[in-house]
Amino acid sequence: MSDVTEEKDFLFDAVLRPHRSLSPTGFAILMGGICLVSFVAGMAFMLMGAWPVFGFFGLDVLLIYAAFKLSFRAGRLFERVQLSGEELLVWRHFPNGKIRRWTFQPYWVRVEMEKPVRHESQIRLSSHGRSLTIGSFLTPEERADFADALQSALQNARVAPVQP
Fold it and tell me: Please, which pLDDT band fits residue 3 given cuts at 50, 70 and 90?
């Protein structure tokens, strides 16, 4: 990650991560409970003579497990926004390990967000006909707070002299 954090003094440096409310321990407890309920229900059907149903309960557990694993994988996505006197950098780190980078000139970039903030409101960085949406995984309140903080940092960068 040394290519991401170059040796600069940043006026603003933020990492945006999607929220995941279920911890790995909570996931293990939840899956244990689902397995237990599915096994008991499957056994009840098996004792009634409907033995094929037992396999479907196992399939349900497998599908729930796969859905949670995909959600946890998507949760590894994060974005980093760094502002120096010379540039605004946006790094998007994808779950598969790929990194995408965008550079904006801080004097020309605009931070746009609909007011009042609604669920579908997005943070958009615009400059010279280019546009980038960031923080789409944040809650509306988090997006509003981040947009305000970034706008304030950009305003401070525009009035502060650039250090050599």
Answer: very low
How far CA 37 is from CA of 23, 56, 64, 158, in Å, comes to 21, 13, 13, 60
**Any idea which fold 12-19+77-159 has?**
PH-domain like (2.30.29)
Listed in sequence order, the residues at least 6 apart from 50 whose beta carbon sits closer than 8 Å to its beta carbon are none
What are the boundaries of each domain within the chain? 12-19+77-159, 24-74
Q: Is 129 helix (H, G, I), strand (E, B) or coil?
A: coil
DSSP state of 125: E
> How does residue 157 score in pLDDT terms, banded at 50, 70 and 90?
confident
Cα-flanking dihedrals φ and ψ of residue 93, to 5°? -100, 115
Quote the tokens at residue 43. Answer: 């056994």
Between the CA atoms of 120, 113, 88 and 5, what dihedral angle is there, to the nearest 10 degrees? -40
Looking at residue 99, what is its pLDDT?
A: 95
> Distance between CA 70 and CA 87 in Å, rounded?
35
pLDDT above 90: residue 120: no
- The residues, ordered by sequence, that sit 6+ positions from 136 with a Cβ below 8 Å of its Cβ are 122, 123
Please measure the distance between the N-terminal and C-terminal CA atoms of the chain and give it in whole angstroms: 25
